[in-house]
């Protein structure tokens, strides 16, 4: 391992798993196919995984599973919020475990929203979890949402330029409550497809 982490070969397996009538989860497996199974839970909601996420794990020891949550990354359909709730996301982890023939996760590795998802999955399926690594913990409580998204928040004071960029995608009259305003575009209330796409991307930054 160097300062940039572990180096992995291309995935030894990748594919799509249908979950319900609408969604297909994109997943990829890296490292030791007979190793300790660890699943990487990305942030967001609406983030994605990438090959760089494998660098945390020794490929000689771990069987690394990366997957994109419903509506995110390479999963299909893109940015779809129908049949896409926290309950669905928890059950998707369990469906993926069964699909890959894993009796028990050695580790849930979650960051930000992924940490929340790891905790929720472990509460529902404690017998399927051996350990957890949680980083950049975000539990989606209202004070945390306020701190990261609302005007005059901690994030706005610490990173004013970045926060201004976040606000600039919204019309002036919609900036008093950015989470509520962005929600309209993420839920496809806007009829302007280009504006909807740009504001959806901005909300995820």
TrEMBL record:
Q: Which reaction does it catalyse?
A: Release of N-terminal proline from a peptide
Q: Which GO terms describe its molecular function?
A: aminopeptidase activity
Q: What is the first-listed, main subcellular location in coarse terms?
A: cytoplasm
Name of protein: prolyl aminopeptidase
Keyword DNA-binding on entry: no
Q: Give the InterPro entries listed for this entry.
A: AB_hydrolase_1 (IPR000073), AB_hydrolase_fold (IPR029058), Peptidase_S33 (IPR002410), Pro_iminopeptidase (IPR005944)
The UniProt entry's GO biological process terms, in alphabetical order, are: proteolysis
One GO cellular component assignment for this chain's record is:
cytoplasm
Family note:
Belongs to the peptidase S33 family.
Q: What Enzyme Commission number(s) does the record list for this chain?
A: 3.4.11.5
Keyword entries, A-Z: Aminopeptidase, Cytoplasm, Hydrolase, Protease
User: AB hydrolase-1 domain: which residues?
Assistant: 36-147
Q: Where in the cell is it found?
A: Cytoplasm
